[in-house]
Amino acid sequence: MKITDIRCQLYTAPYANELMPKPRSYGVVAITTEDGRTGYGEPYAAVNMPTVFREIVNQLKPLITNEDAELPDVLLQRLYRVAEYFDHRGMVYCCIGAIDWALHDLVAQRAGVPLSRFLNPTAADSVQVYASAGHFSRTPDEIEQEFCQYLAKGFRVTKIRAGGNCYSPEHALHHIHEVFKRIPTSMQVGVDVGQQVFHEKQWTYEQCAKFVDELGHLDLLFLEDPLLIHDYEGYRRLQAKGCVPIAGGEMFAEPCMFERYIRGGAWDVVQPDAAVLPGPAASMQVGKIAAEYQKPVIMHGWAGPIAQMQNIHIALALDSCDMVEYCMLHHPFLHEAMKPVWNFSNGRLAAPEASGLGLALHDEWADQYPFKGVSSLIA
Questions:
Q1: What is the pLDDT of residues 351-366, one digit of tens each?
Q2: Three-class DSSP labels, the chain
Q3: Is domain 3-113+362-368 annotated with CATH 3.30.390.10?
Q4: Do domains 3-113+362-368 and 117-350 have the same CATH topology?
Q5: Rounded mean pLDDT of the chain?
């Protein structure tokens, strides 16, 4: 079945929390075959560098146009060979991952099964979804109101931010303790410190260690990104304390990086993103590594609707995963697009029944959210 068209669609949509009341851009690659089917894929890279993503897709397009979409592995190896010399598993690989997702969407559509069952015939029938919000700039009373709203919507798990990139550990601890006084007894809660590579303010290991010690008496589902992501030894030392479940991984694009942290005892909880890892095979590989070391997987999710579906299908397909993140901020592009597949109750999302990813682009999306040249890094 020949590929007749490959196109890149960019969108700019409202996206706001208390610190970032600005629009955000997203990019999706769409691959159409001669039978009229279209497969979709989305890389997280398009959030920060949408026009670079578009140029990468346009450069790679001639390599697989008019080729057989039924041979995704052959086509992907062709793309990887071209990129290997100069990219070395960087942004181009992330964008090739979106092409990989689109090709597998097509293959699963043709097989007549949801992508999760194409990847794993015994994939789960549903997955837990956690409400990701609880921004640190909100007061504990305001966050309590959020929790109650999430409960009313059916969520049973949520997450709060500690503000590690803005506040001191002492301020964050006080905030977290005040929030935990208000948590409904029926909810599980994780904490995201947010110590990622692009933040200017960073806590030292000593500050993080004390922070972890002070949280030991709380029933945390996980403590996410307490250190810079590349601080492997720091993560090992924090995890060895055994105070709270240490989590991370959303920014890693290679299974070998996950294997190092998992095998080395740096994490208790693994948090990959199927829009950062280059395609479904790499995402499944991370899940298998986690299962080998009996580490639970919680899929990270913070891009557009196609990326969200990628994470949902991987969560369903992995035996080591039963939870996926869902953004609760003002994000109309995501929330409106997800409505056709949002079969959600009692904290769980039912597996999509449609073949492939189960979510298609619509012309009105481009009209409703036209690309405005906005990058989340430079806006």
A1: 999 999 999 989 899 9
A2: CEEEEEEEEEEEECCECCCCCCCEEEEEEEEEECCCCEEEECCCHHHHCHHHHHHHHHHHHHHHCCCECCCHHHHHHHHHHHHHHHHCCCHHHHHHHHHHHHHHHHHHHHHCCEHHHHHCCCCCCEEEEEEECCCCCCCHHHHHHHHHHHHHHCCCEEEEECCCCCCCHHHHHHHHHHHHCCCCCCCEEEEECCCCCCCCCCCCHHHHHHHHHHHCCCCEEEEECCCCCCCHHHHHHHHHHCCCCEEECCCCCCHHHHHHHHHCCCCCEECCCCCCCCCHHHHHHHHHHHHHCCCCEEECCCCCHHHHHHHHHHHHHCCCEEEEEEECCECHHHHHHHHHHCCEECCEEECCCCCECCCCCCHHHHHHCECCCCCCCCC
A3: yes
A4: no
A5: 93
